[in-house]
Amino acid sequence: MKNRTLLCSAVAACLVSQAAFAAEKGTIMILVNSLDNPYYASEAKGANLKAQELGYKTTVLSHGEDVKKQSELIDAAIGKKVQGIVLDNADSTASVAAIKKAKDAGIPVVLINREIPVDDVALAQITHNNFQAGSDVANVFVEKMGEKGKYAELACNLADNNCVTRSKSFHQVLDQYPDMQSVARQDAKGTLIDGKRIMDSILQAHPDVKGVICGNGPVALGAIAAL
User: Fold this and answer.
1) Are the beta carbons of 95 and 89 closer than 8 angstroms?
2) From CA 99, how far away is CA 8, in angstroms rounded?
């Protein structure tokens, strides 16, 4: 939680640097994937509280990881001439056009959690060290597996660069152990429901699977429910 508070403070500071000249500070729009997911809800809450503390009005909305809906919400933000946008984007690549549209309209966008693969479009990209985190997780997984056995991987969302990075980091560790046998690797789209559904299917095909490594928390909870 401390890291998230620091991240949200940094987000607000980036926006303040662009907006301080305004006589009235205006509104900051905060867009995240889902307000039902505790992680995204925490992002939104932290950014919302900090922006209000700094004197901004806020609008907090969810795009539901729907690129079209995200684009519509950004169009609405442009129409309302908001002072800035804090965005955990719906898709790393497909979101670039909407973010550029906001920039061209003079509205700074700060990205949190999920980056985009281009520079000079967002004002700032504030993300985690997903590669190091993935390596740490994989090392613990290998230890718990006893360096051998069949395992499955549930990726969190392969449209998200962060998830792709975590998966690559997992395999930089796991692929060093010849007695670790991958029997399945599927994209669980970052959700508990998909994590459970896919894990149920994997268990039917591989009832002797010994371990499961997951790309994020909701997917892991889904796998646990199936197990």
Assistant:
1) yes
2) 19
Model confidence, pTM? 0.66
Q: Which amino acid, one-letter code, is at 39? A: Y
At residue 74, what is the residue type? I
Q: What is the pLDDT of residues 141-197, one digit of tens each?
A: 999 999 999 999 999 888 778 888 999 999 999 999 999 999 999 999 988 999 999
Quote the CA–CA distance of 192 and 219 in Å, as a whole number. 5
Specify whether the CB–CB gap between 145 and 122 falls below 8 A: no
In angstroms, the CA 115 to CA 87 distance is: 10
The contacts of residue 91 (CB under 8 Å, 6+ apart) are: 65, 67, 159, 160
Residues near 70 by beta carbon (within 8 Å), at least 6 away in sequence: 31, 63, 87, 89, 90, 95, 98
Element (H, E) at 60: strand 57-62
- Cα–Cα distance measured from residue 129 to residue 113, given in angstroms and rounded to the nearest whole number: 10
Apex 18 CA angle, 117 and 38, nearest 5: 60
* Beta carbons of 31 and 73 less than 8 angstroms apart: yes
User: Please, which residues have CB within 8 angstroms of residue 77's CB and are 6 or more apart in sequence?
Assistant: 29, 59, 85, 102, 107
pLDDT tens per residue, range 122-144: 898 887 788 999 999 999 999 99
Query: Contact, 163 vs 156, CB < 8 A?
Result: yes
Q: Positive or negative CA dihedral for 61, 189, 72, 92?
A: positive
Q: Which of 101, 15, 21, 17 is nearest to 58 (CA)?
A: 15
